[in-house]
Structure formats: structure tokens, C-alpha cells
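INFO worker-7 received task bundle
INFO bundle size: 2
INFO processing item 0
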Amino acid sequence: MAKFIGLIGYPLKHSISPYFQQAALDYHQLDIRYELWETKPGRLESTIARLREPQNLGANVTVPYKETVLPLLDEVDEMASLIGAVNTIVKRDDRLLGFNTDAHGFLQGLRQEGHFEPEGKRVMILGAGGAARAVCFALVREKVSSLIISNRTLIRAEILADSLRSHVAEVGLETEVITMAWQALNSTEAFAHCQLIVNCTTMGMKHSPQEGKSPLSFNVIPQDVLVYDLVYNPHPTPLLRLAEKAGANILGGLAMLVYQGAASFELWTSKKAPVDTMFNRAREAVQKFA
């Protein structure tokens, strides 16, 4: 009898997760199907309840449910609880356990594909949602020197910054965490001495309301900075096109997507993820739907 794993989010037209996750499941000859479980607002609770059915093994969670899913789970692991966001659900003994593999996937992509070591660096974060929370906590734990968070709704950035400052003080780190108004991103001064810019918004994502748009203009992007756009479809994104034109180094979101997916795969199956196979299928899927 086939088992199932799903991706929970809305909308999901842009997602390529079924392509590379199914490739990994097939690599190990597992009778498991990875599906898109598009869940409209107001239907999240019923979708999570169906996860408890015997044929279902777990799920990935994406925008906009990474934070709102927490109270619907039986248990949340330490990292996901710290971040305040879950992107992976694993069913064990009829209990739904929440994990966050985004932080791991982000750092793996940053180091393996971006060749960037975050310790001691100055970082600008665009966005303050679930993905941004994972990225920020990952960077703080890697001892970046400063973290600037900007979000269209400033209060969300301030809430995230307060959580980070509390964690920094609790564990004895020294990262400076500040917020910046979204409008201030129009100034080159906002990026002075910045070495890494991470776009954690969905701006520029294919099939989104902001498809074709960039959160930054060409003239504010410094030369030699690394611009890491977590949006993976299309590639390159509008932001990465502008960054490359400005003389910056660029990294797309495919690396984070695959590395976080590989970590999720291992939680569901207890088998080693075939990362090369997953990368190959993910690249094919992006090209197919470009």
C-alpha cells in the first residue's frame, strides 16, 4: 500500500518540490508518493487533521503557514520552537512532530554554493516571515557581527528583532540586531559595509502577485556583496539580474530548497538523501517551467 507525503501551502503553482522529492523516494525504491496539498486559507486545520490518516507519513509546510501550523502539532523540536516556524512535519506513533530544516538548508546553500562563511559578517535581511525567522536565527547562531532586518510592515521586523536580541543575550552572543524601515532601502547608505543581502520575501516569485518585481533597485546594490535570493523560480530572479548587473555575487534559492528538502527527506525516511539526484531533478524542473 502506497504511503504519502505532501506539501502544504497556498498557492503552490510555483513549487518544484514534488519533482526532486519524488526522485529521492524513487532512488531508494520506496512506495511513497510526494504530492501538492494546496490548502486555501481557513482549511489548514482540516489538512493537518488528515495527516493523521494511516497512509500519510508527513509533510512540508510553506508560505503562508510556517508559523500558524505550530499550535496544530503535538510537539515541536527545539530549533523550530526557537525560530517560531515549522517547515517539516513528521508523523511518529500517531503524533505529529514539527521541525525546521530551513535554517540548515540556508546555511548549507550559503557555504556549499555561495562559498560564504557568515561569522563576523554584516547582513541585511529583507522580510520578516517564517523563512526570514529561520535565516536570522541561523545567522545569529553562526556569529554574524550585525543583522539588519527590513520588512514592509515594520512591526513584524521589530517583533523578530526582539526575539533575536533575547536569544543573543540568553546564549551570550554579540550580534547586533537592528531594524530598518522598508522605505530606507532606497538609499545606498542602507547597505554600507554590508557583505550579504538575503531576500526572504516572495517578491519576484513566479505565479505570485509580485512576479517580475525586485525588492531592491539597481543603484543601491553594492559591488562584491553576495545577494542570496531565496526565491528559486524563476532563475535568475529580477533581483539577481539587477545584482549581477551591479557587480555583486549572486546565489539563487534552489540550493536552500534542495538542502532543506534533503534534511526533510531524511526525517521522513531515515535514509540518506541522494542530494545530487535531487539537485539534478530540481534544475530540470526549473528549466522546464521557466
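INFO item 0 finished
INFO processing item 1
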Amino acid sequence: MNSAESLVDDAPDVSPQPWVLRSVPFGIFLVATAVIGFLASFALSVEKYEKLENPQAVLSCDLNPFFSCGSVMEATQSQIFGFPNQLLGIGAFIFPLFVGVLLLAGVRLPGWIMVGLNIGLALGVVLVMYLFYSSIYVIGVGCPWCMVVWTVTIPQFCAVTARNALAGDLGRGLSENTMVRVIAKENVAISVLWLLIIAACVAVQFWNFFSTLF
């Protein structure tokens, strides 16, 4: 081996680290999405109590017959566990917000905390997809504030799962698997595609409304 080849072989890997493994951008992402999700859930809670006090009230998110939080709140699916679903959001978004703040503060978090966040977000995504199906295909009305929650929960799940897979917190086998690493690095594209599919489903289901906008 000549000296040039030796220098190439010994050169350090200077490829940029995925953004989910960098504390600052990942922390900013978690804080921003958690705040948005928390505020949307809080707004839904305020609207819910307004509806309870005055069942005839027209809420700020009652945009039209196709998109109305008030109509969705009247369905049984709005209280899966016996209390308003939005209370789950208020509590659930506190954890990623806290994790994001710690990352921005430079705290090195143990893997089990990130895995715990991953599990919580996985359950959150399952709930989001159930509510998406129930709202769009069963109730037949879209909830604007709920859609905001969907829009932040799905990217959070994809980003945290990617981070844990790349960092080895989900097992060394996954972190060393080339296909897993490639997919994990495309977490933003996966999130966008997932949300576009949901948007397409909404557009098709409510085409009678959207067709009037053209």
C-alpha cells in the first residue's frame, strides 16, 4: 500500500452526523413540536368546557360542516378513556418538552429515557391513527385542532425512533444494520409522506367541500 492509500484509509470519517443525533437541532425540534401540540390540546380543552357550559355555543374551530371541533366532541370517540382525549395531549406533550429542554441544556440522557419517550410516542401514534380514522371515516367531520396534534405527533415519533435506532438504544443490531440506518436518516421524508397520505385521505373524503374552493 502506498502512502497516499494509507492516508485515505486512516482519514477520519467527516460525514455530517444525522440531525437527530445532534442535541441542539433535536432539542429545538422536540421543544417546538411539543409546545405546538400542548397549545392545540389546551385550546381543545378550553373549547370542550365551553361546549359543556353551553351546548349551543359555536366554537372558534367550528369552521364549517366538514371541519368542526364541536361536532367531533359530541361523538363517543372524543372520550375513549372516559374523559376528554385532549387532556391526554396536555399531559403527554410535557415529556418531550422536558426532554428537549434537557438536551438544549447539554444534559446527556440515558438511553432508557429516550426509549421510554419512543414507547409513549408509539402509543400516541396508534391513538392518533385511530382518531384520524374515526373522525374522517366514522364521524365524517374533521377536527382542526386535532389535525394540528396529528401533524406534530407523527414527526416526533419518526424522529425519536430514528434517533434511538441510530444511537443503538433499540439494540446494536439495528444500529449496525445498513438498511435501518438509511431508513432512519430519511425520517423527515417518511414523516412528510405519512402526513401527505393523511391529507390525501381527508381531501378525498371531503372532496365535496374542497371542490367548491376551485
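INFO item 1 finished
INFO post-check item 1: The domain at 19-213 is CATH 1.20.1440.130 (de novo design (two linked rop proteins)).
INFO post-check item 1: The chain has one domain: 19-213.
INFO worker-7 idle
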